[in-house]
């Protein structure tokens, strides 16, 4: 007899299963376009030079100890993070309407925010884009939401945003529904609304009394400019919205495994901030008690030092420029080979990912025949492309589609 006999095997998580398959593949030209992590021109993981500098400084700082952080995390970290998102002189900050909570990376920030909304504001319905990052649904349902709905986002024919479908679905959403919005560099499509489209989206969200929950996993990574990538969130704030925004430092600082993130909360009434903070404190206390310090100290060290901050911006530029260059090269190669279809979407899209337009069978063919690992949806991570494999990848796409 075992208590566990009835436990059913759960489905594998596609992106992790793909990486395992890639690691076990002995084919010399294999390429991993699955995982959403930056790689150098040599295809290697990259620790940002500014992170190495910060870590050395922290290692030599004898005043630091290993005591618990407060439940809501390192105060300087969360306030610098919220400032980075909203902008130095945001009225929400000057009027004490906004604050941050250090969380376990972007996923943790989504979870803490969703727990609070489900348990304290009794929210049940949430909307996410079709398609979206594979974890939104699980995080929100695990947090206590009951009704997962999609809004239209991607138009497979135009390989662009389905803004009419998007607005129509928002228009039909019930009052109070929580809307997850990708702040920039939409994962998986790499396709963001224009500023004009964001204004339309904001207007429907306001009219229909919906709650915007931004997911900002790529600030700086999309355009290389931190302010530009925060435009949508800042626009909503200027329009007087109350909102949540989950921020991750996994990509823009390369701190994937440090689990360093922040939940920014923007409210209308400063006098209600202490009550909300106290309830989020209980939410966190009941889940993991308090967050780890290492990543938060690295980020704070860099954001509070002008010289290091500028170096970080350069490091972000290095990453975003390499990705933009790879987009260009891939498109050029595909066009040079005369690969069926148009390929402008590869360079129109931004951020880490590209929705190639390959269907499930074609994507599986890429894995099986060419040892090029990509998601079934046709999503590829541009970070896996390098000057030495881009030709091989283009040739393989060409063979798959010809
Ligand atoms: N949200 C989106 C859209 C993402 O793409 C990711 C990571 O891939 C995350 C959130 C969360 O990442 P992490 O929890 O590693 O910060």
What small molecules are bound in this structure?
Answer: pyridoxal-5'-phosphate
Uncertain spans = none
Shape: globular
Distance between the termini: 56 Å
Order of helices and strands: HEHHHEHEHEEEHEHEHHEEHHHHEHEEH
**Radius of gyration, rounded?**
21 Å
Number of helical stretches of at least 4 residues: 16
Strand order of the largest sheet: 2-10-9-8-7-3-4
Q: If you had to describe this structure to a student in words, what would you say it looks like?
A:
The chain is α/β, with parallel strands linked by helices and 402 residues long. The chain contains 16 helices and 13 strands. The strands form 4 sheets. It has a 7-stranded mixed sheet with strand order 2-10-9-8-7-3-4, sandwiched between helices. A two-stranded parallel sheet has the order 1-12. The longest helix has 32 residues, at 306-337. It binds pyridoxal-5'-phosphate. The site of pyridoxal-5'-phosphate has 12 residues, from helix 5.
Short description:
45% of the residues lie in helices and 14% in strands. With 402 residues, the chain is α/β, with parallel strands linked by helices. 46% of the residues are buried.
